[in-house]
Amino acid sequence: MKHGNNIICGCASNYGYQQGLMNKKVAVVTGSSKGIGKAIVLAFARSKQYSGIIVNARRIEEAQSVTDDIEKSYSSWCTSTAIEADVSKESDCIKLIE
Q1: Of the residues 3, 18, 47, 59, which has the fewest C-beta atoms closer than 10 A?
Q2: Helix (H) or strand (E) holding 93
Q3: Is 73 left (phi over 0), alpha (psi -120 to 50) or beta?
Q4: E-assigned strands of 1-98?
Q5: Residue 87 contacts by C-beta under 8 Å, 6 or more apart in sequence?
């Protein structure tokens, strides 16, 4: 699903099962260090429907700041990972999904 410049991928995965969170999803949101992207990841974390959120930005420091916010407020049901990637580059897109 694409929302403006943010690409949002929600998918069921073994991740939720391994964490004991059956029927949960992992979300990958690009451009999620500020603006609409940040609002989306925080809304996903609040929703309790995602066991994991991948926060993506071109600068790791910005992405890490958002994952810190998620961990402080929502860590009892949601984990987050910061990944530096420029989605205009194919190699970075592959890194983001792996």
Answers
A1: 18
A2: helix 90-97
A3: alpha
A4: 2-3, 6-12, 25-29, 50-57, 79-84
A5: 7, 30, 31, 56, 93, 96
> What are the tokens at 16?
């939720």
Given a contact cutoff of 8 angstroms between Cβ atoms, the answer to whether 48 and 65 are in contact is no
Return the structure tokens found at 64. 């890490």
- For residues 38 and 8, is the Cβ–Cβ distance under 8 A? no
pLDDT tens per residue, range 13-56: 444 444 554 457 889 999 999 999 999 999 999 998 888 999 99
C-alpha to C-alpha distance for 43 and 26, rounded to whole angstroms: 13
37, two tokens: 């992207």
**One-letter amino acid of 64:** Q
Token pair 């071109």 is found at 58
Two tokens, residue 65: 């700041």
